[in-house]
Amino acid sequence: MNRFDYIRPGSVAEAVAAASEAGAAYLAGGTNLLDLMKIGVVAPGKVIDITRLPGLDRIDWLEDGSVRIGAMVRNADLARNPAFSAAFPAVSEALLSGASPQLRNAATVGGNLMQETRCAYFQDPLSHCNRRAPGAGCDALEGHNRSHAVLGWTPSCIATHPSDFCVPLAALGAVVEIEGPDGSREVDLASLHELPGTDSAGGIALKHGEMITALRLPAEASAFAGHSRYLKLRERTSFAFALVSAAAMLRMEQETIAEARIALGAVAARPWRAAEAETFLKGKKAEPDAFAEAAQIALKEASPSGDNAFKITLATRVLTRALTLAAKGTPDRVPALPASVFTSSEGATAHA
Amino acid sequence: MTLSISLSVNGESLSVPLEDPRTTLLDLLREHIGLTGTKKGCDRGQCGACTVLLDGKRINACLTLAASVDGTDVTTIEGLATGDTLHPVQAAFIEHDGFQCGYCTPGQIMSAVGLLSEGDAGADPERIREGMSGNICRCAAYPGITAAVLDAQRRQSENEGTSA
């Protein structure tokens, strides 16, 4: 790890001022930043500890029914907050399916949004990576890429965003509050992570010195609480990143889907909201054929970026199954294995 | 730039100069304070050998900067027993053979103490296994570990006068 200056500012304004200098990085839970510093992927000259900034560790329910979550709220605290998990059960399930209990106790809401891709070539400073070093090329294109993107990729970058938390958030229309050298602004979570372009690798859409201060979920997002699931396929039962995942949330009126919210995880450089599939399900009966067709629609533009065509089939099945589980209703309690395909066998099969 | 931090470790107030801000909580405990019970495994938050309680919550000491724990309360494996009386989780690990080589054991035990205080697992072995998924055991003593945590959970519930 490189040497750095450690600074603990007393206010957001002080933090932003300190971060405006070149080579500065914000430190929150540290579970991603310190790891990246240890392996030499990032080397900030100044580390700005924002974990003690006043007011950023609160969950506030606003008068209009929306909820505002401070950026320094820890993942475990948010997932276990009774009011939050009752209103947004798929978000809690996604949080609890991510990382390990120790990491969830440290990792923050803001840090989860800011986390970097787990592409092995990004994580290896000796490999070529456009995301880490623009213009360097992409070793993943001809490398081990079975877990890489099948949507929204270009030859510039085929990495995926690794977050579970962000997947239901994108579907629920979450808004990210940002403070920076030029003042405050807001951005939709679904577009916080830029997709790669012809000559750009994409990445987080924050300007230098900006920090995430809060996340908001609109009041209408809690209308899906009764039929919300997150399903995460991974290569071991726990403590693994998703190979593909899906958040499926339905607002039911008797047997009819009044409104659907759908997003896929680990298929693109951002949590992938499937708006066309949502529209397709509106007004449909909650039946297997409708879910299977919605899943086909969600993946219709998918294409393999390497040795990963199987992920398109997997994502279609996982989404079909997530929708099937959502239609059955949110369980009273997050399952023993959150978001796992090995639980919740209530009629849904592994080959939906 | 020398920082100085104050913290409580196993109930003892300490003030420690930090010459290098790169020092992690794990290295602070082992190299500066001399508490070597907390182990360094992967040093990247993947194995759980360095698990300690920070203000009562289990975390990976390897991914925590020492500078950032100024003013906190840290509990390590050395702080669990009361004199010669083992903590119930320590006793349960011995009783149920919850280890072989022992290297991961301090982290396993601290993680189990954290799990029990979180109160989510109850008497469900599946929830206990999931709740202990941040701790790797290279000897694969997992059946003993699960049995030990279940037993410790049961004893804790009995002491609290409730059924698990």
Key words describing this protein structure:
heterodimer, A: 352 residues, alpha+beta, Uridine Diphospho-n-acetylenolpyruvylglucosamine Reductase, domain 2, Enolase-like, domain 1, 2 domains, 5-stranded antiparallel β-sheet, 4-stranded antiparallel β-sheet, 11 helices, disordered C terminus, B: 164 residues, Ubiquitin-like (UB roll), DNA polymerase, domain 1, 5-stranded mixed β-sheet, 34% helix, 15% strand, globular
Task: Describe the model.
The complex is a heterodimer of chains A (352) and B (164). In chain A, 54% of the residues are buried. Chain A is built from 11 helices and 14 strands. In chain A, a hairpin with a 6-residue loop joins β13 and β14. By secondary structure, chain A is α+β, with helices and mostly antiparallel strands. In chain A, strands 4-5-10-6-7 form a 5-stranded antiparallel beta sheet. In chain B, 44% of the residues are buried. A 5-stranded mixed beta sheet of chain B has the order 2-1-5-3-4, with helices on one face. In chain B, α2 crosses α5 (142-159). Classes of the chains: A alpha+beta (352), B alpha+beta (164).
